[in-house]
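Response to reviewer comment R2.3. The reviewers asked that we include at least one raw input/output pair. We reproduce the pair for Hydroxyacid dehydrogenase here without editing.
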Amino acid sequence: MEILVFGVQADEKPLLEQAFAAHHQVRCLDVFLNAETAPLAAGHQVISTSVNAQLDADTLRILAAGGTRMVAQRSTGFNNIDLNIAAELGLTVSRVLSYSPHSVAEFAWALALAVNRHVIRAAHRTREFDFRLDGLMGRDIHGMTVGVIGTGRIGACFTRIAHGFGTTLLGWDIAENPACLGLGMTYTDLDRLLAASDLISLHVPLLPATHHLIDATALVRMKDHAILINSSRGGLIDTAALVETLRAGRLGGVGLDVYEEETGLFFFDRSLDVVTDDTLARLMTFPQVLVTSHQAYFTSTAVHQIIDATLRNIDDYLAARTSENTLVPRPTI
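Raw output as returned:
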């Protein structure tokens, strides 16, 4: 069977081809799946998609009409998939429930350290042989109060690193993580966490209840010098409200690996295009803001784990099995 894989990055392609070689034929496409590209899947029973696929009702209907019966998404999040329509169409859908949490947690800290110590500005200066320290003063992480919003596997890894820096730990989640409690974390309500934290990192999934969790009201509660990090999902932050907060001269640093309107932008080269997203364009003008291209997960360890899990999901579908990765099971006949 040939598996059609959408949204394949250049560094990911040889790993996919190597992993699938002993099991299935694989054809890798660098285009992302949406209603315009869905006809490419015609004749393929099984396809695999990336996190930036648009699996809305129109896309899913085109896939089903073309003979697709299984969608294996190579990510943990699945807010881009209309699961109800998939079930109606008889499409099996899977995701990758987990992969190396260290990849995202470590990158979140890379963002935090870079914005706190103005690393990007310093690097740009020294390339021009400007070695002044003006505007480069940061703060010690040691002694800060760090707020972790979401203390699952990734949040717990982020917390362990924070503990190593010697910080006071605050957490917010629907359930307390014993591992975080063991590191001295105090769980509290969201308002207190926002008001008390010097550095806040987001590690919750994007759900209706968490959409714009960090909105204008939440941003007002934060300290003027607070650092905000988001390596989870862009929709957790109301970006327009964030821009207004920054325009008011507040927040000591913002590190974003995700953006709520990133579809069609991230993973593409738009350097020669006219920027039409005024909110993102304005966001990029603030010197204390660092935006990266949804790369927190992108380590060889994590990508290998994602590919291996995707392959297992496909084999489970072919064997009519389900697992913890199954979002929509294979229809029973």
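The longest helix spans residues 300-318. The two ends are 22 Å apart (CA to CA). Further pairs are available on request from the corresponding author.
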